[in-house]
């Protein structure tokens, strides 16, 4: 294993902007790399993406490997896998971190299979074992009732995916300097089996729920689809994004794009308002790290009151309209 060295972070990007989770992973990767005494390499793939490189250095990378080619303009599993595997076989990184986004969850297992290594999915903590030097990836099991520490001692690279919002977004260090490394893309358009005809954004309400500073989320206590329209009005007045627990999504009251929790999105806003949300683990796993949690529920024994900063016992269908009226009055 001595020939493997260095920590890599795959940089997911769209329209020339790096995904927040990739920047979070650069910070986490920087901490791990410092413990190992190795460099952090950002792996950037796309078309005309070179302008992102300097920002990646500010967030913790020592080097940026840039695969800039028209064939990589849109994400395609086979194209991105071929590029990453080729570079990994050439440079032999010890660790590879990938965001657990739709793209990351599609890409990571394909890379792991091609490199004949393991991949621990949806990790919540990353560390280095001081005795072995192995990366220790921690993830929840059985509804977060158990936490498992997983290592990969016999294969390289050690691979993990981490959900957005789990790791802290570190401040930029604008004094950092590094090295951009341009590599040739050998994949040809005529050899690809998938063609991108049209790209349709599924981001709700024109913004990313994971990156929102404020979130208004609804549970079954909202009552029906119309109740979510009322929450949408409240969210608009607060400059917040709308979210939901899993059961309203299952009922068809709101689309999958809004789901927060173990099988949905992970958020870390400054303000979270849970309306008719019970606080069950399926949902709370995705929002427990919110800075300020406000809960509105008719049941004073609801689980969400155990970890909420502020609790209001009452019917959301009475309280939310009152909040909307108050906000409108305050805004004149």
Rg: 22 Å
- The CATH topology of the largest domain is given as Rossmann fold
Alpha-beta content class: alpha/beta
Structural shape: globular
Beta-strand content estimate: 15-25%
Please identify which CATH superfamily of the largest domain we are dealing with: HUPs
Helix count, DSSP H or I runs of 4 or more residues? 8
Task: Give the N-to-C terminal Cα separation.
Answer: 67 Å
Helix content: 25-40%
Uncertain stretches = none
- Strand tally is 17
Task: Write down the CATH class of the largest domain.
Answer: Alpha Beta
In the CATH classification, which architecture of the largest domain applies? Answer: 3-Layer(aba) Sandwich
Oligomer: single chain
SSE pattern, N- to C-terminal: EEEHEHEHEHEEEEEEEHEHEHEEH
Number of domains: 2
Main sheet summary:
7 strands, parallel
Strand order of the largest sheet: 7-11-6-1-4-5-12
Mean pLDDT metric:
90
Structure description:
The model has no long low-confidence stretch (mean pLDDT 90). The longest helix has 17 residues, at 20-36. Helix 5 packs parallel to helix 8 (316-330). Strand 2 and strand 3 (17-18) form a beta hairpin. This protein has a 7-stranded parallel sheet with strand order 7-11-6-1-4-5-12, with helices on both faces. A 5-stranded parallel sheet has the order 14-13-15-16-17. The protein has a 3-stranded antiparallel sheet with strand order 8-9-10. Helix content is 27%, strand content 24%. The relative contact order is 0.11. The chain folds into 2 domains: 7-191, HUPs (Rossmann fold, 3-Layer(aba) Sandwich), CATH 3.40.50.620; 204-330, 3-Layer(aba) Sandwich (Rossmann fold), CATH 3.40.50. The chain contains 8 helices and 17 strands. The protein is of the alpha/beta class and 332 residues long.
